[in-house]
Input
Amino acid sequence: MSLTTKTRKKQPELFLNRELSWLEFNARVLEEAMDAATPLLERLKFAIIASSNLDEFFMVRVAGLEEAVEDGDTSPDNAGLTPEQQLSQISERAHAMVEALYGSLCRDILPALAGRGIRIAALSDLDPQQRGSMLRFFRDEVFPALTPIAIDAGRPFPVLANLSLNLAVRLAPEPEGEGNRLATVQVPARLPRLLRVAGGEGSTYVWLEDVIRAELATLFPGQEVLESAVFRIARDAEMELDDEGGRDYVKTLEAELRKRRHGEAVRLEIESGASETLLSMLTVRLRVGDSAVYRIAGPLDVRGLLPLVDLPGLADLRDPALKPVPLPELGDDADLFEVLQSRDLLLHHPYDSFDPVIAFVTRAASDPDVLAIKQTLYRTSGDSPIVQALVRAAEEGKQVTVLVELLARFDEQSNIRWARRLEDSGAHVIYGIRGYKTHAKICLVVRRGARGIERYVHLGTGNYNDRTARLYTDFGLLTADPVIGADASAFFNALTGYSDPPRMEKLVMAPTQLRERLLELIERERQRAEAGQPAEIRAKMNSLVDGDLIRALYDASRAGVRIRLNVRGICCLRPGLRGSSDNIEVVSIVDRFLEHSRVFYFMNGGDEEVYASSADWMPRNLDRRIELLFPVENPACRKRLLEALDAMFQDNVKARVLHADGTYKRRRPPKGEEPFRAQLRLHAMTKRAFERARAATAPSFEPLSPEDGAV
Output
């Protein structure tokens, strides 16, 4: 019987709910915003991230649960919760989180910034000259862009764009009419939300919506404005597509993106001072229940505060810069392909510079001996040097094949633009694979060398994005291993042509092999433990959700396998359950860089095996995505990767330990133990290694003696 089809009794007590676990992750992000030890502008940044995370959570996860309830779905998840029960618990937790977020923002962060001369003022706080300047700006720049929309029997409620900021305006009844009247005014998204006030000390700003609110009489002449309130709605942003993978698919996706702006409302945020009358007028027209309403005691959509994070100067309010370090093996004159013929190179971003990855593609694009470049692209930067290199390579006649994943959530429109640019250059572009999202990160270069045809491969755990490579921690492997090269060719041939799932020796692919392979590796450790041999699993990932893998880890723990997991986000496994997970430790680290790499270690009786992967341990990654797992075999590369993995478990500053009840507790250094912050330590180690390598290759000057023949 297959490991994946083995029948098991449902045991909801062994699992944590996926959505509630995600909310716990966002709470850890929010903790960074609330931590007085975090520099002030970094606290603001984390508050913005926590708020943005909630937006996406509602648009995708909550929307999905609400659709399930509407469809009558009462099936429980692994933790035993029905969709309706999940929505109830999510609402309670999310409301408390929003309250904590705005409490920290309005009571701590913004007042502290005001103490440093960066303040957000009400119009009434400005002197007459400053108010006059703001009102002139309204008249000249804002008023022409505004469209007041009345709502009555003949004019239905407008279709408001997802996440757009709006003013709801309650107007007095007409002399012969009955009841209040409602109107809306959308705050223009193309204008700056924070308006800098000229004059005075420091930096003073006012909100654009407050300037509009002060001039509502101009928008509704002759009408009595009873009240106004800023509000915002989050809409269902999930897309339902027939994954055909061709140009018609691109057109369908573009149509779905237009529809995303107008999906069903799943959350309504409104200023806390809004009256029940005005709120009721909105909820009826938006068809949202009480649980979806969030009264906000502060500025809606805190993304508007992002310009403050990027203000020049104020170095003491930010974390010290940690610049990426060049790779010692790749000096100015180094031939990258020649270096790879002698050894593999492991990159750990953002501690290592992303430049070698860019150089790998740009060098291949300009090298006359390169015959073909094949690459998957999931997310990349808007002006990506990698896309530019692929365009040049195609224009120069090289065979360029790019598998573009259009369904990279919220990056779809950007991906369509540069995919068409690649097509225009002559590259062969594959728009996804029917029924699967392509999430693998791989680039294959085929080159004619002195020894015949050579293959060079880059494999990664993160995207080919030079910008996020400075913010996300990821591993990349550059190799000329002929077996991996042959596997890479088989992988691309399977995706671009008609073939059965490829047979590969070293690479492991989802959805055809990866789940089975991971279960086999866990089972092997379990068997070694039962045989009395030392057995250990160490793994790092973003999310652990898959029921089969979690049950396999429980079995291994019961057999005595020591299991240490570094799971940044969602973890549905309960550690520390007597008789099931006594030997399992789960740690999460939220720090200045987003932990994004996936790394897996299996002791294997001393014959250790180490892998990195594009895949998390989630059903979507194992069953519905094209993913790759690759071995790290070079001893130096493996040593470095394991040092980074072990640092995750040594962290006693930013690490939180998961408990069986689903809560996380910050790990603090015991008395007398030196603080160990993994990300700072790893950057310092990378920098020291570079300096040692540079010192070892630096020229030395030694004076000649008479015995040396000096004249």
User: Anything to note?
Assistant: DSSP finds 19 helices and 27 strands in the chain. The radius of gyration is 28 Å. Residues 1-5, 239-250, 252-261 have pLDDT under 50 and may be disordered. The longest strand covers residues 225-235.
